[in-house]
Amino acid sequence: MSSTGQLDLLRTEYLALQQRCEETQRLYESLRVGLSEEQTAQAEAAESLIGQLVAFTRKLLETHIYSDIVFLLDDKSLKSHRFLLSCRSALWRNLTDCNELTIEGISLLIFPLLFGIRLILNSDVSYSTFLLIYRWLYTDEIDLNCDDNLLIEIAQAALRYKLTGLSNRCISNLLSRLNSSNCVSIYELAEREQIEVLRTSCATIVAEQWDRFTATDFAKLSAPLLYRLLKGHSKNLLHAIVELARDDVLFLFFMEFDKKLAEVVNETTSNGESPLELSLRLGYTNIAKQLVEKGAVVDLRDAEDNTSCPSKVLPIYYFSFPGNVAGADFLARHGANLKATNSRTGFTLLHHAAESIQERNEVAQWIEIMKDRVSINDKDNNGRSALALSILRENADLFFSLLRLHADTNIQDSEERTPLYLALFEKENANFVRELIGHEANVNAVVQRKPLICHAADMEYPDDSLRIVTLLIEQKANVNLPNVSDNKTALHIALDRKTNEIVQTLLESGAAVDVKDSEGETSLHKAVRAGELFTQIIVNHAKDIDCSVKNKNGTTALRLALNAKDYASASLLVKGIHSGADVFEKGRHGRSLLYEAIEENDDATAVFLLNNGGIDEESGPESWLEMASKRGLTQTVKTLCSSGISINVRTQSGKGYTVLKGVLEKGHYECAKLLVHFGIDLDSWTETEDGEQTQTLLHLMMDLGNQQAAIFLIENGCDVNAKKKYRKEEDDDFSSPVHMAVAWGQTEVLKALVKAGANLNVQDSDGRTACHVAVREKHHDALKELLAAEDVTFVSMRDKFGHTTLSQAIANRDHESANLIVNRVPHAALQTNGNGENLLHVAVKSGDLEGVLFLLATHVDVSAVTSDSSRRTALHLAAVGTNEMITRNLVGLFLLF
């Protein structure tokens, strides 16, 4: 519920309570005379004096018996009784002997009748109103739930006829219904009848709710009465009078303050508004004229001692209100200084005119009329001219008027903005722009260290940017003016922002492509940074552009493109320009682009340079192939090999080997595969640094323990049986790669060698096969790999000491190796030596119990005899021996059979 609705509800409740209070009062009066409400109703039956009088009086209202007086009003008559009137009002207690009675200026003519007297009421009370009072006289009852005007009329009559009970009820009821809409008429009654309580309450409402009142509300109030009301309850008396537009009340004010008018007519409200300002704001020109005649100031007023009252200049102040032209014109005609300035804002009359919202056309016309009295080019505290402000406020009327008055179109504000800048970028108003340029606005003005064309190119939205760039170009703006701060031109900025349409427009309008910014970059650098599309645009437009220009970091456009991996742009630079970018250019350290690309492992860039002829004859200590292959740059290696270069050239860094050595050492096997594909020498026989031997790459990798590299060589077809070549024969141990793999424990390499078909029967200088070496070194994994070969004839081969691999294992008491051999070659245990003895015979003769037991466990034939003339069995040999345990085991075995 709104606050107004709540107030109405409260007022209704109050009136109901008041009515109940009045009823209670009436009952109280009855009690005072000893009569209850019920007794009053039954008074006549009870035949008491008081009851009969009350009942009889009520009946007189209807019957009019015993009437002895007649009221004449509006040509109508009402019979009444003098005894009742005498009781109700002191005014009518002396009606018996008089013929005429005057009541506060109202003439009551009284003359005798046959049965009484006639009372003529010459008053302004209507018959209908008096009828309500007449009924109250007899019944003490009246309905006051009527409109305000009727209640006021009843109250006025009750007061006039001194009907105290009724007047008190009316006053109480009026107090309860007081509000802003009726308080003025009630106040008039209170003043006329001197009702202090009503007068105070009405004045309080007027003071508290002054803003709700209009001049119409007080129109019927007399000047003296209204003046007393305002004077007693207004904070700013003169302002209140001005707001009501009452010349008669203003006259009373002037009369009272005649001796200090010059002071009071210039007093201000808490908001700093003077009576003259108020009158002009409200359009009360006649009152304003009277104020000026009495000394109101029409010029500068400064209220520096009151922070709530900003400094103002009256003529310009009125352009903030509707109807402002009339106010300003009034002040101008009364001598106001139209060149005055607001000390707080620096605004002149024209600045306020620019900010005006209504009547813009009238304001502009008035300014042109006052052209000789105003300052066209004055600035406010922000350095803005009125022309600039009219652009910001889009006040076209004043804008065109100021141009007709030859306003300066190039004044810069405190932010260095010109009117043209504001029209272009703050408001984007093409009409303003064309008019300004037509009135000598500088299209090449530098604003905030940046030309207008650069501002246009640097706008957030490309469409807006293109539109303004095009507009400036149409107006002959210099497209090559650079920024003061970074020396960037509009073309640089457009390329930075990647706005291709603007780039095209600028180039077609003569934008220079060779201008350097503060970083030393030309448009070509910027285009490369922006991408292929923009590089294409620049290259197409400027075929003779110099590609060798370097920025502060010593970087050319080509190098920028390569660094960004933008090979499309790089290709345009190399092939799309007449002179072409130099693919052989050197960096700060004198290194070529190709060298730097390979050194930085940039495979794609190196390939681009090779495909575009960027290879020179010398790369340094290492060849291009060696540099690329060591870094695993497969595409570069492929490109180099495809170009037909010799890939088997021995390298200095590879210590005489081919580039394959470095590739394998770095683990670049994809690159190694490429080299193999193109026919690299897998053996690469090379003399060692000491010159004592010559070896293959396989020997080297195995010596270095690089099994993966060795396996790669083996799997790709290197010579798996190649032996090292020694300068001195006595140093040659005749070891093959298989011997080396076993000796070094390189099981995976051995596996690859076996798989590749390496010769396993090769013997070293001691007649040992690789299997002998495996048994001797107890390399069981290596032995397993060897025994897994298809051809195991090496098992029966003897070294120069007469040992087979099995006898060597038994001699070393390496039963695991022996077991592996016997399992793979069961007949190995039956082999005999030069004396015709097999391994069991030898073990028995040597007293090797463990060897005997091992051989017995392999189910060797214990009955086998020696192949010499003695033809002895193992038991025979044990019998002549000294090891009883051997004999027992052999005897036990014989008994089983």
Terminus-to-terminus distance: 127 Å
Proportion of beta-strand residues:
under 5%
Q: How does the helix and strand content classify structurally? A: mainly alpha
Strand order of the largest sheet: 2-1-5-4-3
CATH class of the domain at 43-204: Alpha Beta
CATH level-four homologous superfamily name of the domain at 43-204: Potassium Channel Kv1.1, Chain A
Computed over alpha carbons, the radius of gyration is 64 Å
Oligomer: single chain
Tally the helices: 50
Overall morphology = elongated
Give a brief rundown of this model.
By secondary structure, the protein is mainly alpha-helical. It has 50 helices and 12 strands.
Description:
Helix content is 51%, strand content 5%. The protein is mainly alpha-helical. Among the domains are: 43-204, Potassium Channel Kv1.1, Chain A; 682-831, Serine Threonine Protein Phosphatase 5, Tetratricopeptide repeat (Alpha Horseshoe); 834-897, Serine Threonine Protein Phosphatase 5, Tetratricopeptide repeat (Alpha Horseshoe), CATH 1.25.40. A five-stranded mixed beta sheet has the order 2-1-5-4-3. Strand 4 (106-112) and strand 5 form a beta hairpin. Helix 41 runs antiparallel to helix 42 and helix 43 (770-776) packs antiparallel against helix 44 (780-787). The longest helix is centred in the first third of the chain and has 30 residues, at 3-32. The radius of gyration is 64 Å and the shape is elongated. 39% of the residues are buried. Mean pLDDT is 82; it is low at 99-116, 302-314 and 319-323. Keywords: ANK repeat, Repeat. This is BTB domain-containing protein. Residues 67-146 form the BTB domain. It comes from Diploscapter pachys. ANK repeats lie at residues 271-303, 486-518, 693-725, 733-765, 835-867.
